[in-house]
Write a structure and sequence with these properties.
Layout: E1 9-12, H1 18-29, E2 33-37, H2 51-62, E3 67-70, H3 77-91, E4 96-98, H4 114-144, E5 151-156, H5 159-163, H6 169-189, E6 194-202, H7 209-218, H8 235-242, E7 253-257, E8 260-263, H9 284-294
Parallel strand pairs: 1-2, 1-4, 2-3, 4-5, 5-6, 6-7
Antiparallel strand pairs: 7-8
Helix pairs in contact: 1-8, 3-4, 4-6
Length: 310
């Protein structure tokens, strides 16, 4: 058995099914002790069931690993605290936090209800902030007491947030926020020995199946039978980011699809124009169209800017 994460304790949220389940199993194979957090609700966030988290724990322990289930709500303040406390009280430490829990309630902006907006923002954005908040507080106290800290936070963004899929304004806004949250937090906590990175996975799960099943149907297949959309393809990259070789990497967002790893480059300043006074509305008639014409186009949903727009 590989021991890249031997002796480490990891909290993985949304780990009862899909991509999160793959993370939990891979982390255990790499020697980590795992807190398997999952509320057990449906894809839209309704309902509750301890079964998925318990099932993953059973898989890990049957294979000789160590794990404990946790059913707290990531977006609830006390729930987020309980998730982190579960790792410390059960295994005596915390080394890695993977924020993966999420739901979908897709709708166009014109048709989206306030509840559909709030629920998705709550689970993804608040549900990333809460566990991170309490984990960072724990590690900060260790660092202030003179203990060496080598900790990891790995968040989950999405191509929908970075490259903007129509029909997912709530989900995309939350995932874009998580990418920004990742970079900001990385700059705040680096001095304590904590790295913060994010991934945007492209893989089949119960949340993504309606979208990726259509893409998969038209995607070319290799001759070796490799399924580029298998959810477990993402886990090795996340396990690596949790490991010792990733110590110097922080504040980055990685795309993972099949056997491909991509580094997202994010927003950056493009063409500019400046005068040493206030602009008039009339002169902007020429200035702003010229700036837009010289700027690279926005990336498409695949993350690439078409050659003609670069």
């Amino acid at each position: 058995m590989s021991t890249t994460l031997d002796g480490k304790v990891a909290v993985i949220t949304g780990a009862g099914r899909g991509i999160g389940r793959g993370y939990a199993l891979e982390f255990a194979r790499q020697g980590a002790k795992v807190v398997v957090n999952d509320l057990g609700g449906t894809g839209d966030g309704t309902g509750r069931d301890n079964g998925p988290a318990d099932s993953v724990v059973e898989e890990i322990t049957a294979a000789g690993g160590q794990a404990v289930a946790n059913g707290d709500d990531v977006a609830d303040e006390q729930g987020a605290r309980n998730i982190i406390d579960t790792a410390i009280s059960t295994f005596g430490r915390l080394d890695v936090l993977v924020n993966n829990a999420g739901i979908l309630r897709d709708r166009t902006v014109a048709n989206m209800s306030y509840e559909e907006w709030d629920s998705v923002i709550r689970v993804h954005l608040r549900g990333t902030f809460g566990p991170t908040h309490f984990a960072v507080q724990h590690w900060r106290e260790l660092a202030k007491s003179g203990r060496a800290v080598d900790a990891r936070v790995i968040n989950t963004s999405s191509s929908s947030g970075l490259y903007c899929n129509p029909g997912q304004a709530n989900y995309g806004a939350a995932k874009a926020g998580i990418a920004a949250f990742t970079i900001i937090t990385s700059r705040e906590v680096e001095r304590y020995g904590i790295t913060v990175n994010a991934i945007y996975p492209t893989a089949m799960s119960r949340l993504t199946e309606p979208v990726f099943s259509r893409i998969k149907a038209t995607a070319p297949t290799g001759g070796n039978g490799f399924d580029a959309f298998d959810a477990e393809n993402v886990a090795p990259v996340v396990a690596w980011l949790a490991g010792p070789q990733a110590k110097g990497i922080t504040g980055r967002v990685f795309g993972v699809r099949g056997g491909r790893v991509t580094v997202a480059e994010g927003w950056r300043a493009g063409p500019a124009a400046e005068v040493d006074r206030r602009w008039t509305v009339e002169e902007l008639d020429e200035v702003i169209p010229d700036l837009v014409a010289r700027a690279a186009g926005n990336a498409g949903s695949d993350g690439r800017v078409p050659e003609a727009q670069r």
